[in-house]
Amino acid sequence: MENIERVLTSIENIETLGTAADMNPRMPKLYVRNEYNQNPFELYSENEFKRRYRFFKHTVLNVILPLIITNLQPFNNRGLPILPQLQILIALRFYATGCFQMVCGDLNSISQSSVCLIVNKVSAELSKLLPRFVNFPRNMTTVKRKFEELGKSNTHHGLNNIIGAIDCTHIKINRPRGITHSEAYRNRKGYFSVNVQAIIGPDLEIFDIVTRWPRSSHDSRIFRNSQAYARLVNGELEGVLVGDSGYPALNFMLTPLLNPQTRADNNYNYSQLRTRNIVERFFGVWKKKFPCLQRGLRSKLTNTSNIIIACAVLHNIGIQRGDVYDDGDLTDQTPEVEQHRNNERSTTGLAFRQSVIAQFN
Q1: Cα 217 to Cα 340: distance, rounded to the nearest angstrom
Q2: How far apart are CA 28 and CA 11, in angstroms?
Q3: What pLDDT, in 10s, does the model give residues 126-142?
Q4: Pairing state between β 193-200 and 206-214
Q5: pLDDT at position 50, please?
Q6: What are the CA-CA distances from residue 97 to residues 16, 132, 287, 309, 335 (Å)?
């Protein structure tokens, strides 16, 4: 009898939510499984919704959902399937909190295993959109001008011909299972992580991202094995990157001087650091927008990579649509020069850097 009453109650709730949605055609008709049977699109105001899901309602319904809805549709209506609208909300809530999947499931009266499948499925679908939303612009003129403005001061100009700022950050993970070289993922602080490389534009947009390397891999090695490096070497990308001292000085990579001696050296370092600061700020904004990247991921390596890429795709979608996340108290501070050397050197790279420094006399 109890089960029959529960089914009847669910049917009544479906009818109630359907009526509410009919009154407001902008809201989707949802069967909500949570204890209170409340539709998040109707329950929360725009600001409350964005705090919980990191995007406004119209961005979720009219931009993100249509991109992946085809592969999220249930095959049939057996067993009260979870609709695509709820699947995307469950995944966004996981990205926006980084909490245990069991907690996300309890909020929607869904099992942890179902939440796991939903997050993995939505992440896989979003990761397929990487070539569409994460790429270098075809016209780099505006990008170069904005980067020059970033490095400019009252006393000297900024760096010319800059097309991106590059750096790596580590995303905490559980010890990888099913592989023999899992210790390669242990970083110098003692926990396991993946080393994620990103090339960032002047407006905090992601131009390129690499997520497949263990934390023990050096930043310069990841760069040399990346598609962006090959495109720069082959001349497909015309311009220069700025990076920290962990990268080699190349004819398309400007790095800081560890021991500046002259006024020109100091002016160059100041401009280079101000220009590179955008990538440092990006990692702070990105991890605050998607705390799952800050608190750590407990999924398999393949799913972990998809989640990271999904957060990158969502970040760029937000920027393109003007649905940005307020980074609050994150300040624009110039980073310090890292006191570690890279032994990889290029004669042409050092000569190129010296020619740039000469412009700061």
Answers
A1: 15
A2: 17
A3: 999 999 999 999 999 99
A4: antiparallel
A5: 93
A6: 30, 26, 11, 17, 27
CA distance 108 to 90: 8
- Amino acid sitting at position 336: E
Tokens of 209: 């991202």
Instruction: Find all residues with CB under 8 Å of 266, minimum gap 6, and list them.
Output: 260
Q: Which residues contact 307 (CB under 8 A, 6 or more apart)?
A: 95, 119, 123, 292, 297, 299
Give the amino acid at 56: F
Instruction: Give the amino acid at 355.
Output: S
CA 202 to chain centre: 15
Of 95-104, 172-181, 343-352, the range with the highest mean pLDDT is 172-181
How many whole angstroms separate alpha carbon 195 and alpha carbon 283? Answer: 13
Q: At what angle do helices 263-289 and 301-320 cross, to 10 degrees?
A: 100
Exposure on the CB side of residue 63, measured as CA atoms within 13 A:
18
pLDDT in tens, 24-72: 545 665 655 554 457 888 889 999 999 989 999 999 999 999 999 999 9
Q: Distance between CA 65 and CA 24 in Å, rounded?
A: 19
Instruction: Read off the pTM.
Output: 0.85
